[in-house]
Amino acid sequence: MTTFKDRSDVIAELGAKHTIAEIFETLIEGEMPIRFTAYDGSKTGPDESPFGLEIKNPRGVNYVATAPGDLGMARAYIAGDMVADGIHPGDPYELLKAMQNMKFRRPTALELVVIARSLGWELMKPVTPPPQEAMPRWRRIALEGLRHSKTRDAEAIHHHYDVSNTFYEYVLGPSMTYTCAVYADENQTLEQAQENKYRLVFDKLRLQPGDRLLDIGCGWGGMVRYAAKRGVQVIGATLSAEQAEWAQRKIAEDGLSDLAEVRHSDYRDVPEGEFDAVSSIGLTEHIGVANYPAYFGYIQSKLRDGGLFLNHSITRPDNTRSTKAGDFIDRYVFPDGELIGSGRIISDIQNVGLEVLHEENLRRHYALTLAEWCDNLVKNWDAAVAEVGLGTAKVWGLYMAGCQLGFERNVVQLHQVLGVKLGTNQEWTVPLRPWWEP
């Protein structure tokens, strides 16, 4: 099919009319890898593909045309203006895999005129995005303050984590653990692998009964309860009110109130110090790369001499790319989230005076974890939709399946970094070789 994107003189096309499929073709580079159909009867892409996208109405075209790329596609899909064939909305992994090499391009000004002439100028006016979408970055500054201020961090965490504890139970399973599991092998269940992750963190930190642990960004308190069950005094901090309430209730049910506490608090407001260990499992992604020195400096100040620190976080595979998340992740999943390579994390840990003892990449483990979460969402789909609505449930399926693919393709990684706070004499206070089972 010849479309106006293939012709050199765009101006000659200003008076022409084009189908929706032809317009869609102008927004991508190369061939369409799956079937695409539209409400005007036009189509493109291979008929034999097991997967297809269908634009159902003019609003879907508006979303895709005015924000070419993952944001526009997500808007149309989440709003129900574009439907996907051949997948379950709780796990669109296979569809995303088929589309993994599809690249979008922004149309030129002249091409936008051609699109507007074809669709009608009224159709090109901006329309309200789905309600699950967060404000753009520039509006967040105006209404919530500078990025990673306490107020803005609290709002970002609220957007993602205060969805519904019941919904998270459907997705995460009994462990209520929203971080990468660690699999001894691929035959382990999700619950076994999450227990194994907590065991690994506990052992790396050399925790013993009577020790004191600070768990920053503790979520629903999985690490807090794991350590308290083994005689450790634990304080957990989370910016999510719903997480804190759930965690405190679970601590009481488990009879751990004398040892464990989860506070609805910014970690910067925890006054206690001289901890034997500090764990940060899945928080570094939220604090901002520019704030790493202050963050790791805070952790250094909370440790006693000889105390150990473990940072578990998603990273990029190098230290050169933009730290900001893509538009879909920033608007629908993690507002203000930032990632950089493990090299930057290690450097900033070292620069505040913590000695790095060990680091490892668990990239493949996170792909396995996300596949399990998607499977849980599919199994509990009707209940999940009833709890949070179809649009939000679709956001989660899209996000988790996309992240699974990202970890498999080495777009993102997961690193654990272990450090120690040395005393003034720089004495080595840990065994000569790793003391934990992998």
Automatic annotation (TrEMBL):
GO biological process, one term: lipid biosynthetic process
SUPFAM superfamilies named in the record: S-adenosyl-L-methionine-dependent methyltransferases (SSF53335)
One Pfam family linked to the record: CMAS
Swiss-Prot/TrEMBL keywords: Lipid metabolism, Methyltransferase, S-adenosyl-L-methionine, Transferase
Protein name: Methyltransferase domain-containing protein
Domain Polyketide synthase-like methyltransferase: 167-434
Family: Belongs to the CFA/CMAS family.
Active-site positions on this chain: C403
Organism per entry: Nocardia uniformis
Molecular functions per Gene Ontology: methyltransferase activity
CDD domains hit by this protein: AdoMet_MTases
